[in-house]
Every structure is written in structure tokens, then in C-alpha cells.
């Protein structure tokens, strides 16, 4: 009897590359599972039945835990009553009311499916509002995977990225320089709420830079856009830049707003309402009611629970514990960004050799970490989960020799090649 082919081989036959985008594990450390069967709370099970404490949270959507009962009950009830119909359900208005009540700069809301839909809509509304073309963005910041913003250039044209000028995140001078270059054509400044680029340390926003972005937009009649797709509701119960006292004109949301159910949003101030009302944007599934019901319940939990304080406290516990473990074994860690969005890299590890070995060791011990993308703390995690992680890190670093290690050169070369195209 012939054995059935492993899933990876079957995937390679019928899915280009076996997998695409950020969920292709080819570039990740040895042993990263490609397929998962089940998820509950903070735990994932791969297709082989192995379980992992999951620090990636689906790359962001899992905020209150996988399979959260109240959220999923709201989803299922709404789905049974009518989900994707010829028009939206009343929950659409309820959700728009809830989002605009929650986010202080927002007077209106539009819903879509992916973060990219929301950032693309933000760009269109800014251009419509100003009648201008140029958008100013931080170099290296991720705003989605449409031709105008996808990080690897394959299949896109220079024209797709025309009318863009880059600045350095947190550098008010470089922002001013970019705005000067845009001249009288500035439509918008895009800002990530924090610097959460891949491969490099995270940075919290310098309040002075954030305020300068606001002033420059006001001086030039341009719109300030905060892309809160990833960090939204993980840093504040408001737009993330409320934490530095800066209100954008538009903010894009996605990932955690319905705890894993597919919906994203663009929120805006009255100033941009006319422009938003006069662009044509839509999608077959943008009006599906069940994810909206899930988002309403998620928002209620955001208002009524201490999830934010809890995820910060758990992140702090992880950060302090990992620093102690690393020091004990002679490693230096760079743990940057908010502790509830941990990015953990090793000192003197440009080739990521130590980072990859660390992640592989953790994986064998049932902990899923990422070597160069920020991770996420889920409210379903417990102190015991953090302590188990610290034990796994201790056991792993005992085996990983301190000092420079050869990195996954081939894997990183593939990425560099793609980027250079
Ligand atoms: C994920 C992400 C996007 C794109 O969202 P998708 O749902 O993947 O289209 C945009 N901006 C940021 C900051 C993100 O993290």
C-alpha cells in the first residue's frame, strides 16, 4: 500500500511555492509547521497533532483567545440569521456607532475585509479630499500587499508606486524634508502607530515627531493617516496615537477588531466625510454581518475587561524573564517595542543564526516564536504560560552555544533576491 503524500508535497503540487505571502514557512526556522488543525485559547495544534503556545496570534487577529465563546456565539447566531446578503444587516450601523464611540478622532466608519482594503481606501480618500497625488510614508513600514505598497516588487510597476516619498520613522527632520519635496502636491502622511517593521528593532513613536506630522498636515491641508491595522486596540482602547496625544484624520483597522473574524475598517473625521462619500469602493464580502457581530462583542470586551492591562503585564513578565534567562546563559537580547507586541532579537546576530536556533529550540518545546517579526500577547495567555515559555527558553539556551552563529543565509538570500527584483 502506498503512503499518502505529506501535506507539504501535496501543497507544492497545487499551490505556487507550496504557500505564499507571510504564511510561507520556507523562510522561517527549521521545524516551523506549515499547517494547523485546531486552535483554542492561546494554543495551536499543527496537522500532526503537536501543540504550541502561540505567540503569533494568527499574525495579530487573536486578541482574546482562539475560539472565544462570547465572540464566536455572536458570530454564529448572526451567521445563522443571515450573513452575506443582498444588503447589510442592522449590525453594520451598530458597529459603526460602536467604533466611532470607541475611537476619539472618528466621526464615521467604513468596513471592508483586509487591512490592505482600509489603507488603500485611506490613500484614495486623501487624494480625493485634497485633489493631490503625493503620499509620504515611512521607509520600510508595512501597509499591506496591494501593488502600491507590497514589500516585494515582483509583478508591480514603478508607476504603481509613483507619487510616493519616503521618510525615516521618528525623524521629524526627514519627515519635513519629504513634505518639502511633495511641495504643493501633498495628499497625506501615512504613519505607523509604532515602528513595527520586520528585521529591525521596534520603536515607540516620539511624541514630537507625531505632533510634527499633525502640524505638517494641517499646514498643507493634507490628511494624517495612522495605520492601526496591527497595533489597534493592543496599545490603547482608542487609536494608538491617542497615547501620544495626536489625533489623525483617518485610521485603518483590521486584525484584532473581531478577534479573528474577517473584517477591517477605515475610520475618519468629519473633514474627510465628503471625500469618503464620493469614492467607489466595495467588495462581495464587505457587508457580511457575522464578522460585524463578532466585532461588536470584541469591542464590548475591549471596553469592559482589563485585557489591555493584562496583556501588558504578561508581556512585561515575559520580557523581564527572558532578559534574566539570556543573561544567565551569556546572551544579550534586544527586546523592543511595547511588551505586549514583543520583538525579540539577539545582540550581534545580523545573520539571525542565534535567533533561528532559539526559535527552533522553543518550537521543539511547544512554544511558537518568530525570529524577526513582532509577536503578540493574547489575553488567553496566563502567567503559567509565560513561566512555561521561560523554562523552554532556559532549556533551549542551555543547548545553543553563545557567540556568533552562521545564519540561515540561503533563506535570507531568497528574500533579498525577491526584494531586489
Ligand atoms: C497586516 C497589516 C496590513 C494589511 O492588512 P491585511 O489584512 O493583511 O491586508 C496593513 N498595515 C499593517 C500595519 C499591518 O500590520
From TrEMBL:
Phylogenetic lineage: Bacteria, Pseudomonadati, Pseudomonadota, Alphaproteobacteria, Sphingomonadales
A Gene Ontology molecular function term of the record: pyridoxal phosphate binding
Keywords per UniProt: Pyridoxal phosphate
Family: Belongs to the class-III pyridoxal-phosphate-dependent aminotransferase family.
Organism of derivation: Sphingomonas endophytica
Protein name per the record: Glutamate-1-semialdehyde 2,1-aminomutase
Cofactor: pyridoxal 5'-phosphate
RNA-binding recorded as keyword: no
InterPro entries: Aminotrans_3, Aminotrans_3_PPA_site, PyrdxlP-dep_Trfase, PyrdxlP-dep_Trfase_major, PyrdxlP-dep_Trfase_small
Gene3D superfamilies found in the cross-reference section: Aspartate Aminotransferase, domain 1, Type I PLP-dependent aspartate aminotransferase-like (Major domain)
SUPFAM superfamilies for this protein: PLP-dependent transferases
Amino acid at each position: 500500500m502506498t503512503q499518502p503524500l505529506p501535506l507539504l508535497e501535496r501543497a507544492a503540487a497545487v499551490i505556487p511555492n507550496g504557500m505564499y505571502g507571510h504564511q510561507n514557512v520556507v523562510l522561517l526556522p527549521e521545524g516551523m509547521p506549515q499547517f494547523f488543525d485546531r486552535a483554542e485559547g492561546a494554543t495551536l495544534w499543527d496537522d500532526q497533532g503537536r501543540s504550541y503556545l502561540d505567540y503569533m496570534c494568527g499574525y495579530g487577529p487573536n486578541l482574546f483567545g482562539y475560539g472565544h465563546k462570547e465572540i464566536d456565539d455572536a458570530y454564529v447566531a448572526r451567521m445563522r440569521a443571515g450573513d452575506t446578503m443582498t444588503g447589510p444587516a442592522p449590525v453594520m450601523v451598530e458597529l459603526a456607532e460602536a467604533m466611532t464611540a470607541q475611537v476619539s478622532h472618528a466621526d464615521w466608519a467604513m468596513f471592508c475585509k483586509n487591512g490592505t482594503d482600509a489603507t488603500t481606501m485611506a490613500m484614495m480618500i486623501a487624494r480625493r479630499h485634497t485633489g493631490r497625488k503625493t503620499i509620504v510614508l515611512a521607509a520600510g513600514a508595512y501597509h499591506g500587499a496591494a501593488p502600491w505598497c507590497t514589500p516585494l516588487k515582483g509583478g508591480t510597476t514603478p508607476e504603481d508606486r509613483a507619487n510616493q516619498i519616503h521618510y525615516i520613522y521618528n525623524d521629524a527632520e526627514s519627515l519635513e524634508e519629504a513634505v518639502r519635496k511633495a511641495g504643493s502636491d501633498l495628499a497625506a502622511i501615512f504613519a505607523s502607530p509604532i515602528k513595527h517593521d520586520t528585521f529591525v528593532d521596534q520603536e515607540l513613536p516620539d511624541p514630537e515627531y507625531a505632533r510634527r506630522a499633525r502640524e505638517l498636515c494641517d499646514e498643507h491641508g493634507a490628511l494624517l493617516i495612522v495605520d492601526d491595522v496591527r497595533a489597534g486596540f493592543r496599545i490603547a482602547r482608542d487609536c494608538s496615537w491617542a497615547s501620544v496625544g495626536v489625533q489623525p484624520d483617518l485610521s485603518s483597522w483590521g486584525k484584532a477588531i473581531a478577534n479573528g473574524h474577517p473584517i477591517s475598517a477605515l475610520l475618519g473625521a468629519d473633514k474627510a466625510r465628503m471625500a469618503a462619500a464620493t469614492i467607489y469602493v466595495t467588495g462581495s464580502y464587505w457587508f457580511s454581518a457575522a464578522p460585524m457581530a463578532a466585532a461588536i462583542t470584541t469591542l464590548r470586551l475591549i471596553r469592559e475587561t482589563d485585557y489591555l492591562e493584562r496583556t501588558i503585564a504578561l508581556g512585561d513578565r515575559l520580557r523581564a524573564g527572558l532578559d534574566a534567562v539570556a543573561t544567565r546563559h551569556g546572551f544579550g537580547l534586544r527586546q523592543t517595542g511595547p511588551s505586549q507586541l514583543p520583538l525579540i532579537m539577539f545582540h550581534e546576530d545580523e545573520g539571525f543564526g542565534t535567533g533561528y536556533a532559539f526559535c527552533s529550540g522553543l518550537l521543539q518545546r511547544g512554544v511558537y516564536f518568530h525570529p524577526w517579526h513582532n509577536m503578540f500577547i493574547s489575553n488567553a495567555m496566563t502567567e503559567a504560560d509565560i513561566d512555561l515559555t521561560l523554562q523552554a527558553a532556559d532549556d533551549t539556551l542551555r543547548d545553543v552555544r553563545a557567540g556568533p552563529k552562521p545564519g540561515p543565509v540561503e533563506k535570507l538570500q531568497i528574500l533579498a533576491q525577491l526584494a531586489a527584483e
